[in-house]
């Protein structure tokens, strides 16, 4: 079977090569998904991400959340707990910096850390997904760790993956720690499992 690393390389290149206009339409396509989604409409706080490396751009989705009084937080690399994420409140005035992967994140201010228990929905970036909802990420295990309590005990935020349609692959070689997603939104459709 194809290795996880070669799958990552192939799909990361595919999404980086998407034309700017495709990226723009993809970003806009999230708004009707959000408007039609009962769980999203009822959410009080969600975690999103800021796109990098050709990921589905979330800025339109973030603006829609703010307009609908849904608080937004973003992942911040934990300063000393390796492989872990913190979630920090994100508003139009939040001071930002770049993390060691060059991804913008809120400057770490302890007063703005949000507990996972108060996040209703966690939108995850991903590199590739398959028709069973298996998710392959960038390789840090950050989201697998974050979602492990939801996977095993249904504790913590409900995850929804966001991806371009071209990130769907035939089959992902799954590892024991991988958390399959219950839902993925792409510009073309909403995937959900059980189907
Ligand atoms: N937009 C976004 N934010 C995110 C994630 C993500 O996937 N997307 N993450 C989801 O986990 C976390 C960051 N995880 C990442 C893991 C690896 C690489 C990366 O580019 N690795 C390099 C080589 C490693 C290095 O430079 O040290 C590479 O593979 O080329 C980037 C982000 C938190 N924030
Ligand atoms: N729940 C967990 N507890 C401890 N270690 C974990 C857990 N989940 C993943 N890991 C470790 O993290 C490393 C990277 O995992 P993996 O390659 O699946 O990341 P990924 O899903 O691609 O990335 P991400 O979740 O950050 O998007 C693996 O070595 C794995 O052992």
TrEMBL record:
Q: Where is the signal peptide?
A: none
Required cofactor names: Mg(2+)
Is Protein biosynthesis one of the keywords UniProt gives this record? no
Q: What is this protein called?
A: 5-formyltetrahydrofolate cyclo-ligase
Describe the family membership recorded for this protein in Swiss-Prot or TrEMBL.
Answer: Belongs to the 5-formyltetrahydrofolate cyclo-ligase family.
| Organism of derivation | Pseudaeromonas sharmana
Q: Which reaction does it catalyse?
A: (6S)-5-formyl-5,6,7,8-tetrahydrofolate + ATP = (6R)-5,10-methenyltetrahydrofolate + ADP + phosphate
Enzyme Commission identifier(s): 6.3.3.2
Q: Give a yes or no for keyword Metal-binding in this entry.
A: yes
What UniProt keywords are attached to this protein's entry?
ATP-binding, Ligase, Magnesium, Metal-binding, Nucleotide-binding
* One GO MF term attached to the UniProt entry: 5-formyltetrahydrofolate cyclo-ligase activity
Q: Which InterPro entries does the record cross-reference, listed alphabetically?
A: FTHF_cligase (IPR002698), FTHF_cligase-like_sf (IPR024185), NagB/RpiA_transferase-like (IPR037171)
């Amino acid at each position: 079977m194809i290795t996880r690393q070669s799958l990552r390389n192939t799909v990361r290149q595919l999404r980086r090569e998407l034309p700017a206009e495709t990226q723009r339409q993809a970003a806009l396509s999230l708004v009707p998904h959000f408007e039609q989604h009962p769980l999203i409409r009822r959410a009080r706080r969600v975690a999103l991400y800021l796109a990098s490396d050709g990921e589905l751009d979330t800025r339109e989705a973030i603006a829609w959340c703010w307009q609908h009084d849904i608080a937004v937080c973003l992942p911040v690399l934990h300063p000393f707990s390796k492989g872990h994420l913190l979630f920090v409140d994100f508003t139009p005035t939040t001071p930002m910096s770049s993390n060691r992967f060059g991804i913008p994140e809120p400057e770490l201010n302890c007063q703005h850390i949000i507990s996972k228990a108060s996040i209703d929905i966690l939108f995850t970036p991903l590199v590739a997904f398959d028709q069973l909802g298996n998710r392959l990420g960038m390789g840090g295990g950050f989201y697998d760790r974050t979602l492990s309590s939801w996977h095993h005990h249904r504790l913590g935020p409900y995850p929804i993956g966001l991806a371009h349609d071209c990130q769907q692959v035939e089959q992902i070689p799954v590892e024991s720690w991988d958390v399959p997603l219950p839902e993925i939104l792409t510009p073309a459709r909403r995937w959900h499992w059980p189907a």
